[in-house]
Amino acid sequence: MRTKRSVPARPALIAALALAAAGSLLLAPGPAGADPLPVTREGSAVDDRAARAPASAARRALTADASPAAPTRSYPRRLALAPDPENPGDKSLKLGLTPYHAIAPKLNALQRLGDRVSVEVTGRSAGGHRLYLVTVTAPETTRQARAQERMRELIENAPATAATSREITRDYKTPVFVNSNIHGDEWEGTDASLKVIEQLATAKDARTRDLLAHSRLYFNITANPDGRVAGTRANANGFDLNRDFVTASQPETRAMRQIELGTQPAVLLDLHGYVNGTLIEPTTPPHGENYEYDLFLKNTYANALGMESAVNALGYTPAKDGVQAAQIPFRDQEEGWDDWPPIFTPQYAAFHGTVAAHTVEIPLAVNNEEYDELPVPELRRRSAINTAVAGAAIRATLNHVREHRGTLITDQIEVFRRGAAGAAQVPVSPETVPGVPGIGPEDVYTTTFPRAYVIPPGGARTQRSGPAAARLVDHLLANDVRVTRATRPFRLAGRTYPRGSYVVDLHQPKRGMANALLADGRDISGKVSVMYDISGWSLGSLWGATVERVPSGSLRGAPLRPVGEAAPVAHVPAHGDLRLRLTDPREIAALNSLLRQGVLVRRAADGSAIVPASARREARTAARTHDVSFTATRQSGTAPLHRLRVAAAVTPGELFALREMGFDVTPVSTAVLNAGFDWSGADVLFVSAGLDRPDLTEPARQALDSFLDGHGLVGRGAAGAALNAAAGRLAVKPVEGNADANGVVRVRNSGGITRDAPARGFVYAPLWFTDPGPGVRVEQSYAAGNPLVSGHWQPLRDGSGGPAAAAGQASVVSGGHTVLFGTEPLFRDHPKGEFPQVARALFTVAHSASVKESG
């Protein structure tokens, strides 16, 4: 909790959110407290609604990438955009805002206003909509544009040299990134950006000319066009894009990532809604330990003051307009609006040199219940106010950039210099960050960076999965983390590593990004009472690769060469039957592709798949397509495996993961079953969300029970456990932990379902199972002691529901045709190393009379 302030503190944010008005529900403007609905940044992290995303959206996300960077050329860059078909169902229209189909014509018109506006298409959304980036700057010749690119690269790659460059001080244009509409039903940032772009395109005053001569302004017009059209927070895959930056599973997120890599913004605004009064970051503790937080806080707070002043100067009042004064969480709140996980746009940007980054939550709610219940005039009044507030925030930021561009670039260079030099972080304090009120020990979060991480290559002859290592390396590279590979065996810190090992040297400009992705993280349960979203994540622990932390040592003389991509893993022996390990989602996808072609695949006693020599051609295609390795085997296998048709009442992340592994999935829910569902097209049922047996009609309940009488059930979490109990399947007692708890946990694997699985898992609202009856097998348990590795997991007020209560208890159980998970093995694309547990569970319950036969 904060111990020192120079201004009076408001109540803790969580309490404030319960009363914060996203605008009164009354027609007349009212005070903020008139709206009883709680305001949240992203919505509940635990999704209890069944996903409905079309398979086409998953295909786009799994195959599409951001558009490749165009060769350096002059500004402006003209692009005539073909119009989109008019869509009278676009949810923006009701609010008097710009529908998606009107954006392309508007951008064409803006380009015609002069020589300051350029438009590019950075990719397509999961739903197939174009993603637009607008650049506003003074004209540049190709030579001048190349000089800007050269200076940008010098800032990152040679920061010590950049710090003394007179050319950079004199000529470098400060990059600014304005991101709008990342949540589709938070519309107004798009309209504010379009208005500001038009003003900048035509303004003749000296301040605008000076701004554009010394800055490049990048506007991501709508980061989530799928949601803008549909009026949903998520994209067409059901993903909250402002949760996706660690894994970048969605094409929209990858496009935003590419904008940040290509432009290296010093300043970023991410325009959201709705919190009344307008919420302007920086945030409450805990603060991300991998950031250069002293530089980040210094600049972010200074710009926040300017935005606060500009928003309040609009003159809106609680009595007249229902609009409260703006708030800055770092200054005004105790906890509950943190910047701990880099899953949010501004926090992710800090690793790429952004030293002033803000979520801005505009004030008056026009989504959800308000959208459905309020009259159109009231909705449009609110949207007009919100657009004005967002515009004021943008213009204040541009004024700040014009006045402080030297400091912003100097501090960006220092971020990269510290990383490249392996310099110590600077803890925040009143002395190191003067002018920021209320800094106390509760704001100090730093880490000890290791000297390096080593990722052994994996592959057919090693114990760990080659696909996992390759996937992790490619992901690091995609995030602009430098990776090298050993050309021969080498020693580091007293240990010998094999040829082909990947090495991530933490003496690099973006060491924070590397460490945030690879480190175990920290247990912060004792630091604060509540967290905003996930508190633990680790691709190093959860993606299935072996990642070894090397605390110290020298890389001087090590036989390492930089790599631009991971070495291919694909391999098929020339002779004999083939064995495919099923310990990675790519291997599951390869198996499903073979089954889809009718290849006779058998299950081996160790849980792997045996492919006959006669299917070598199909195996080679699968190996190349999915980058997996087959080995020669003399095993013949036992029971044949069949292509599975999965009926799934699951979260969006789980539906996406099932499709990533190549399963044929039909989304179901209580509503779908009540409408009449043909169970003949399903082989197995997976339930974790949105299917409540008591809410089914009698015919739907009878049809479900009839299906379960002869088919398998895989359940996860409380919803899966409830259906298991109602159907009288496994005799176990589910125990629910703290619903807010989440993070990386230690587990002990003991069954066929979890064979060769990582010793780490992920939980959100953890569950465990006690009192196992006859025939119940414990597949996995939480580790003894404190199972939490990193994250936030406190007991409930009565002392129950904490990690001590879960320690040693069963986290995955099986029996008959049923498997139940208390962990989150498919959570938001994070725990890829756990995905195969679900795949094995599906195959086991669908193909075996008992789980015992699987191992």
UniProtKB/TrEMBL annotation:
Residues 32-93 are annotated as: Disordered. InterPro entries: Peptidase_M14. GO terms for molecular function: carboxypeptidase activity. PROSITE patterns: PEPTIDASE_M14 (PS52035). Residues 96-397 form the Peptidase M14 domain. Keywords: Carboxypeptidase, Hydrolase, Metalloprotease, Protease, Signal, Zinc. Its cofactor is Zn(2+). The active site is at E369. Pfam families: Peptidase_M14. Residues 1-34 form the signal peptide. Residues 52-71 have a biased composition (Low complexity). The keyword Flavoprotein does not apply. PANTHER family: PROTEASE FAMILY M14 CARBOXYPEPTIDASE A,B, SLL0236 PROTEIN. Belongs to the peptidase M14 family. This is M14 family zinc carboxypeptidase. It comes from Streptomyces tibetensis.
